[in-house]
Amino acid sequence: MKELIEVIAKSLVKKPDQVNVTATVNNNVTTYEIRVAPEDMGKIIGRQGRIAKALRMVVKAAATRENKKVMVEIL
């Protein structure tokens, strides 16, 4: 799952080497935190949050196939 998020995030930004994804597990919910360069923040979020919503939707769909609960946060 982490690799999926990294591939998507790196394809969206101008500085893919600064993309960092960390995972933490709390109460059976895995939270993935995405950190990017400050100038790439807009590219990850998108207009009115559309790209962020799409990214979350893809990750949740992949997690549902594995019967897992996930959250994606962009920091």
Describe this entry's structure for a reader.
By secondary structure, the chain is α+β, with helices and mostly antiparallel strands. The protein has a single domain (2-74), classed as K homology (KH) domain (GMP Synthetase, Chain A, domain 3, 2-Layer Sandwich), CATH 3.30.300.20. 43% of the residues lie in helices and 27% in strands. The protein has helices at residues 2-12, 41-45, 50-65; strands spanning 20-26, 29-35, 69-74. It has a three-stranded mixed beta sheet. β1 and β2 (29-35) form a beta hairpin. The radius of gyration is 12 Å and the shape is globular. The model has no long low-confidence stretch (mean pLDDT 93).
Summarize the structure.
This protein has three helices and three strands. By secondary structure, the chain is an alpha+beta fold.
Largest sheet: 3 strands, mixed
Average pLDDT, rounded to a whole number, is 93
- Tally of domains: 1
The N- to C-terminal Cα distance equals 18 Å
The helix content is 40-55%
What is the string of helix and strand elements? HEEHHE
Q: Helix tally?
A: 3
Shape: globular
Strand order of the largest sheet: 1-2-3
Strand content of the residues, in percent?
25-35%
Q: Superfamily at the CATH H level? A: K homology (KH) domain
Q: Compute the number of strand runs.
A: 3
And the CATH topology? GMP Synthetase, Chain A, domain 3
Defining traits:
single chain; alpha+beta; GMP Synthetase, Chain A, domain 3; three-stranded mixed beta sheet
